[in-house]
Amino acid sequence: MDDIRFAVLGTGGIGRRTLEVATHRDGLTPVAACDRNGVAIDHDGLDVDELLDATEGNIASGPSDERDVAPDGGAAAGGVKQHGEQAGIVASDQGRETETPIDDVIAEADEIDAVLMALPNLEHDFIPRVAQRFADADYEAVLIDVLKRSRVIGMLEDREQRLVDAGITFVCGAGATPGLLTGAAALAAQSFVEIESVDIWWGVGLKSGYEDNRGTVREDIAHLDGYDIESAREMSEAEIEALIDEHDGRLEFDDMEHADDVLLERAGVCDAEDVTVGGILDVRQDEKPTTTTVSVTGRTFDGETGTNTFQLDDATSMEANVNGPAIGYLKAAVLRNRAGDYGVYGPAELMPTF
Ligand SMILES: NC(=O)c1ccc[n+]([C@@H]2O[C@H](COP(=O)([O-])OP(=O)(O)OC[C@H]3O[C@@H](n4cnc5c(N)ncnc54)[C@H](O)[C@@H]3O)[C@@H](O)[C@H]2O)c1
């Protein structure tokens, strides 16, 4: 495959690791990265090591704000919690401060083959609206996200014709769950002619990565009983710490709104209601508190009922299982885009490329 020039929107816990994982994969040149405060662009290729060193322990994290989403100057919805104007990419020699980081990347989009959106999703229409802005700028290449929420997929489908008209190939929910595990479920389903259930059960240990992954932890809290997207967005860091203390560092989630359900339905594998997603997050130990397992139960053509399972090795980190697939799906999407195949795809509809 020819060299792929790619950008990462959001250099938090996930986006930083996207850049790092990409250095281990062939044919990828990172040419742009941005966070809420700044942007770094170099069409000859960013110096990933320098950028990672500069942002180590210094992520411009927190919920998304709207300041460069609403060109009309629309106010941010709810309180915006920032970690200082100098946090994140502006601390890198390659970075510069900007009020319009995403627009600055869009302005260079003619020379970019793929854009990976590692942005927060606490305002769940944030990523669809960013996609729309690329389409409105007549970007003709690949967009990919690692979002989690089921409801966002419909928002992307609503914009599908606009994306096709622009010439965009969009892969949504292309991280771990949804993402790798959704794709694994679609493969595991092939033994059967009818699927009864898909159960996804994940385990993540984050002790050494907790500081880097506060954005993801905040979003996960929104899935707990008694919390929702709005309340999780408004929580202070101290409130999050207190909640984690109450649970001794271990949060268990049942029946999460994860887009694996609608993405498997899109791919024709089963009904969304037959899919359940849950898991355990432990922010005080690196070991996974439980083994990530996908169980697909179905009926075979000759009348047997069985369960195919797919497990991740406990040694593989969340960051490895999100970013490896995201890059694999990004590469697959570039091949599709170059073949003139545009539109919205989920991770159960195409095979990631290594
Ligand atoms: N599918 C999966 O398996 C999976 C797993 C983990 C995380 N995720 C998703 O990955 C996403 C990123 O998570 P994270 O932990 O890296 O979050 P984070 O908070 O650490 O990072 C978010 C980044 O986005 C930037 N950002 C916020 N608003 C912005 C704006 N208006 N313009 C430009 N940049 C902006 C921030 O500065 C930061 O760099 C989340 O949506 C999370 O749900 C998915």
Automatic annotation (TrEMBL):
One function term, GO molecular function aspect: NADP binding
Catalytic activity: (8S)-8-amino-7-oxononanoate + L-lysyl-[protein] + NADPH + H(+) = N(6)-[(2S,3R)-2-amino-8-carboxyoctan-3-yl]-L-lysyl-[protein] + NADP(+) + H2O; N(6)-[(2S,3R)-2-amino-8-carboxyoctan-3-yl]-L-lysyl-[protein] + CO2 + NAD(+) + H2O = (7R,8S)-8-amino-7-(carboxyamino)nonanoate + (S)-2-amino-6-oxohexanoyl-[protein] + NADH + 3 H(+); (8S)-8-amino-7-oxononanoate + L-lysyl-[protein] + CO2 = (7R,8S)-8-amino-7-(carboxyamino)nonanoate + (S)-2-amino-6-oxohexanoyl-[protein] + 2 H(+); N(6)-[(2S,3R)-2-amino-8-carboxyoctan-3-yl]-L-lysyl-[protein] + CO2 + NADP(+) + H2O = (7R,8S)-8-amino-7-(carboxyamino)nonanoate + (S)-2-amino-6-oxohexanoyl-[protein] + NADPH + 3 H(+)
Enzyme Commission designation: 2.6.1.121
Pathway: Cofactor biosynthesis; biotin biosynthesis
UniProt keyword tRNA processing present: no
Gene3D superfamilies per the UniProt record, alphabetical: NAD(P)-binding Rossmann-like Domain
Superkingdom of origin organism: Archaea
Post-translational modification Allysine, affected residues: K148
InterPro entries on file: BioU-like (IPR044262), NAD(P)-bd_dom_sf (IPR036291)
Assembly description: Monomer.
Misc. comment: In cannonical biotin synthesis a pimeloyl-conjugate is transformed into biotin by the subsequent action of BioF, BioA, BioD and BioB. This enzyme replaces BioA and performs the first half-reaction of BioD.
Name of the protein this chain belongs to: (S)-8-amino-7-oxononanoate synthase BioU
Lineage: Archaea, Methanobacteriati, Methanobacteriota, Stenosarchaea group, Halobacteria
